[in-house]
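Good morning,

Both structures are done.
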Amino acid sequence: MQEGEINVGVDVSKEKLDVHVRPLGERFTVDNDAKGHARLVKRLRGRPIMRIVLEATGGYEASAVLALGQAGLPACVVNPRQVHDFKKSTGQLAKTDVIDAEVLSHFGEAIRPDVRPLPDETALELSALVARRRQLVEMRTAELNRLEKNPKRAIARGLRRHVDWLEKEIRQVEEDLDKMIKGSPLMSEKSGRLQTTPGVGPVLSRSLLADLPELGTLNRKEVAALVDVAPFNDDSGKRVKDGNRHIRGGRANVRCVLYMGASSAARHNPVIRALYNRLLEGGKKKKVALVACMRKLLTILNAMIRTGSDWDPNFAIA
């Protein structure tokens, strides 16, 4: 830690924000609403703050992060699993909101997570619509699975009505997404560029725009690590014989959609198909080969946005 450096931890709940300022030991609580966010900004503005660390909480942190970003304060949202592992490593077993805020400020000081550009209102709305579409699709899948079990006639009728309603809602959300993207020249340009790539359709391009706003601003290793399509070693004891590598953390929502895109690209994209076939011929399992394709596809898309280039079949990006 550099002398005079301040790191702030903010533990987020639905109703309130518990704040710890390290190394000053200052603690305070504000409401998790517009007035509370204004108080938070007022308390922190003008200090030599290196980073303000919040955990991803499924959306409860979004408005606070936006308020901090608009005030020019260096907020960063981190993966809760990373913080949990860090907390265990320090021997901290107790759990309260106050303690969690202190752990977050300590995490910021010790781990020094990157402060990345924060999304604006349009990006947040796009992300919310993408999340809503994902929820509706999951509900439709669940109802269709129930229909496959041949339920009683009255239940089947209700399931079909619900499926019809869900499909209508999905179409409406997709129309809203397309309208929002077309209404933003920058998003429209990026979406069109991404979809010049064989295997990349509207669902993947929307998800990347909404949930990976850093696309095009990072190098290939950084973007792969952010989404976590860079499997890590797990060689310990007997496991060293397995030769397996694992994925953990990262942007799970992006990774799920990217998996489907890579599956399509492995059939229709000449660069990804060549990689996929080469790995299979070399004895790799299909899932391992697909993860490698996900990484390759992501690094290509990242380079396309960074350089402002459409798809080129001669891409040779590692």
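Second structure follows.
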Amino acid sequence: MKRRENTTMQSEIFIILMIVMILLFIITSLYLAQLKQHQQPPLIVLDEAQGYAFHSSSAILNNQFKNQLTATVVNKIQTFAKEHQCDIVEVYGYTDTQPFSKKSKGSRFDQELHHCLTHGCDIDQIQASSNLELGMKRAVSVIGFLKPKLITADSPIKIIRPYSSGQFINEKGEISLLKNQSGNKLRRRIEIRLSRSRDLGLKR
């Protein structure tokens, strides 16, 4: 009889311990999920060394670039957006410090690039006159490809914005030296950051 009571007590203790462990798991999972909602998502870097390459002075995405975006980057952005409750994607274009020699169309650049963002365009018909403008062209080109894949009815992402740092920020995130480093594949890159409109006080 006593042995049966001991067995029953051990079973009850085991059940209680299991319930406590399950509750701890649930609480920990909820805490981590809540924590992620306030953390900054990882930076996504697409540099030439990984195969995300543009032709010189061009912003056209080649097939390899598009395939890699589709295969890995789109899913990564969507996952980060859901985990961290982000609704804004920011695409930054960076170049090396190779001197820029293309002729400019002058003040038409801003208007033409804006039209490209809002209505689409042949990106290489827009002439950049500096690395800063080229970085912006490349950011807009990436956005043109990503936008229909990211902004969907069931996606938390509502805004995709282009930025350019041109040649001014190196691969370490520091202000770069303006000497010709055209052989540095890490300098020629796209960076994708995610943020939240609520952190900026924006109501959506």
